[in-house]
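Collaboration report, partner site 2.

Our partner group contributed sequences for two proteins of shared interest, and the home lab folded both. The records are reproduced in the order in which they were received, starting with the first partner submission.
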Amino acid sequence: MGLTNLVRKVVVGAALALLPAASFAGVFISVGFAPPVLPVYTQPICPGDGYLWNPGYWAYGGEGYYWVPGVWVRPPQVGLLWTPGYWGWGGSAYLFHAGYWGPHVGFYGGVNYGFGYGGVGFGGGRWEGGHFAYNTAVVNVNRTVIHNVYEDRTVINHTTVYSRTSFNGGTGGIQARPSAQEASFARENHIAPTSEQQNHMQMAHADRSNFASVNGGHPQNAAYSRPGVRADNQQQRVAQGVRSGQMTAGETRNVENREASIHNQAANDRAANGGHLDQQQRQQVNQRQNNVSKSINEDKHNANTQEHPHAEEHGGGGHEPKK
C-alpha cells in the first residue's frame, strides 16, 4: 500500500511538472483518508482595495492534514478570479485539485467555503472595469475605506443545514458534479497560485499548530487579513486574553516583549537582504512565532489570572530562547 501511494505521488508530481502555467489546474497529491470538516471562523476585514478572498482549506503534508488559513491576496492581474482547490474522491484515494486564477470561477467540488464561495461560483464581488466591487452582504469590507461596494443578499446560502464537509464524492462527501458552464470554464487559460500564495501555504505547513493531529481539526489561526501578518493575529489573541482575565499583566508583558523582538529581527533581516526574507529567515521567524503562539495558549489555560497571578513568581509564562 505504501509503495502504491509513493508511485501515485511520483506520477502526479511528474504530470504537474509538464503542465504549462497558463493551463494550471491539476492534482497535487492523493491521500487514503478524508480531510477534516471545515472550521468555523470569522473573515478578517479586507486590508485594501483590490484584494480578493482566498478561503482556508486543508492541505496535506508529511504529518497529515494541516490548515492553510483563509487570506486576502492580490490577484496576478486585473480581471482574474480565484477558483479554490478541493479534495475529491478518485475511486481509491482522495485527490487534491489545485486552485487557480482565471477569468471565471470554475468547479470547486461543491464545497461551501463561505464568504461568497457557497459551493457554486462566487458571490463575494465582481470586476467592474479595472476595479473590483465587493458584495458587502457576504464579505467583510470597511465601506469608509473601500468605496467600490454593493449589497446583494440573494447570493447568501439560506439552507437550514450548513454543511462543513470539505471534500467531494465518496462516503459522506458532497455529491456535486461540474455543470456544463463550469466544464467550459475548466478549458480556459488558468494561472497558477502566486508566489505570495505559495509562501503562505509553506508558512502554514511550517506551523505545527495548523496540523489536525495537533489541533484536532480546530486551528487557532483560521484566517489572516493578508499573508505574513501572523503577529497581528496573535496580538488579537493576547487582547482577548487580557479582556477575559485569562492573561496576567506579567504574561502579557512577556509576550509583547517577545513579539517586539521578533519584529525587530525581521526588520533587520529585511534591511540586510534587499527588503525580503530568505527561506531560512522566514523559518526562523515562523519558529519564534510558533513559540509565542504556544505560550499564549498556555497562558490562557494555566492557573494564572488577573485576579490570581500567584504562579508568575514561580516561573509562569515560558520564555523563548534568545535569537
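Second partner submission, folded after the first:
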Amino acid sequence: MPKLDFDIITLGHGSGGVLTNKLLDSGVFDLLTNDILEERHDGAIINMNEKIAFSTDSFLVSPIFFPGGNIGELAVNGTVNDLAMCGAVPKYLSLSFILEEGLKMTEFWEVLVAIKFACENANVKVVTGDTKVVEKGKGDKIFINTSGIGNVHPKANIGKTRIQIGDKIIVSGNIATHGMAIMSIREGLEFESTIQSDTTNLNHTIINLIEQFGNDIHLLTDPTRGGIATVLKEIALTSDFGVDIFQRDLPMDDQVASACELLGIDPLYVANEGLFLSFVDASIANSFLEVLQNDKNGKNAKIIGSVVDTHPNQVILESSIGGKRVVSMLPGEQLPRIC
C-alpha cells in the first residue's frame, strides 16, 4: 500500500480538487496505470477495429430531486456527455442502482421515467444493469452508476496533447447553474430563487460541431465537479503552457451570480452539468462560436480565454477591473454531493 497523506476518506476527496488528485495519483493511477488510463480524460478511447469511447460514472446527488431535474436524468446525461467530450456518438449504457430500504416506489418510478426520457433525448439504449438494496440508514435513497460506450466520430481528434499556444477557450453557456440550483434547496441554505439545473445531453450539439470543424477542435471537456477552475488547472498542470481567462467574458445568470455572492461561493468552482469547454484553433474560433450560439445548448456561449506560452502550468484570471490572480484548485470540498 502506498504512503498516503490521509488515514480516512473525507468529503473533500470527492471535490475534484487537491484531495481528489492526491487520492487518484497515490492510488488509482499508480496501481492501475496504463497508457489509456493515463490520458485522464472524461472517457477512454479504445481501438477495437474501430475507435470506441468508453466511460463510467457514479451519481449520489443530494437531494435526488432538484429544480430542473433528478438523479436519473443526471446519470444518463453525465455519461452521455463524457462520451461526447471524447468526440464519440454515444450508443449504449449500463445502469446500476444501489437503493436504500424504505425508498418510496413512487420516487423510484419518477427516477426511472426521467431515465427513459433522457435516453430518448440522447438516442442511447440501456442494455445491461444491476440493482442492489442496502439496509435503511446504510445509503441515501438511491445511488446510480452508469457506464457508456460509443463510436468515435471519424472527424474527431480530441486530446490534451493537441492543445496549441494561441488556442481559444470557449464555454458553451452560463456557468455555475447546476451547483447553485442544488444549493438553493439544501437545508439551511434556502433562498428565493428560480434557478434550475442545466443538466442536459450535449452529444447532438458536439457531433454537429465536429462535423463542421473536425480537426480544428483540439479538446472538449465538461466542467462538472470542481467547475471551470478545476478543469482548466488540471489541463495546465499536465502541459507546458498557461491559460488566461477573463472575468468580464464569463457568462452567468444574474440570479446565479447573486446566489454565489450571498453564500460566499466562487462560481468558477461550482459544478455544471449541461456545459462544455472547447479548446479550438484560433482561426476558427469566431465561426465555431457563431455555430454554437445558434444551438439551443450554446445560446450563451462565449470565448473566455486563450492558451499562452507565458506562466506555464498556471491559470490566470483577469478581473473585471483589470487585476489578476492565480486560479488554484480547491484544497477541500466546496459543494458536497452535487452530482
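Feedback sent to the partner group on the second submission included the following. The mean pLDDT is 90. Residues 101 and 135 are 5 Å apart (CA to CA).
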